[in-house]
Design a protein that fits this description.
Layout (H helix, E strand, L loop, with lengths): L10 H13 L7 H8 L3 H12 L3 H19 L4 H7 L5 H12 L3 H8 L5 H4 L5
Helix pairs in contact: 1-2, 1-4, 4-6, 4-7
Length: about 130
Amino acid sequence: MQTPTGEPTAAGALERARRWLQEHRNEPYSLAATARAAATSPRTLLRWFAQVHGQTPLDYLHGLRVAQAQALLQTTYLTVEAVAQQCGYGDVGSFRRIFARVAGVTPGAYRQRFRLRTSRRQWTGMPG
């Protein structure tokens, strides 16, 4: 594969960027830090990432965070606010908007659809 300028892409650079985003998904997003991890410029990273993955690094990161949030909403009784915090979102409103855009439903509706089938007392091991 080649870049738009005809230079070969460094597949390793994109993989490093993707892995860095996975490992730092709970931290504030930084295109510059992601590009440094990939050993390329931010502009080149954006161009390559979109060409190979069909989305920006930020959209990829949102996908990772929403997948993590879906797992937490399905398997825990954490509040939506706590889930947002654990997934790297400081603002719950932003989390709700992004979650709805990526998952197609709000976090509350998602939890309702996939909630645990036992009561909280049973789930935590407390006597019923």
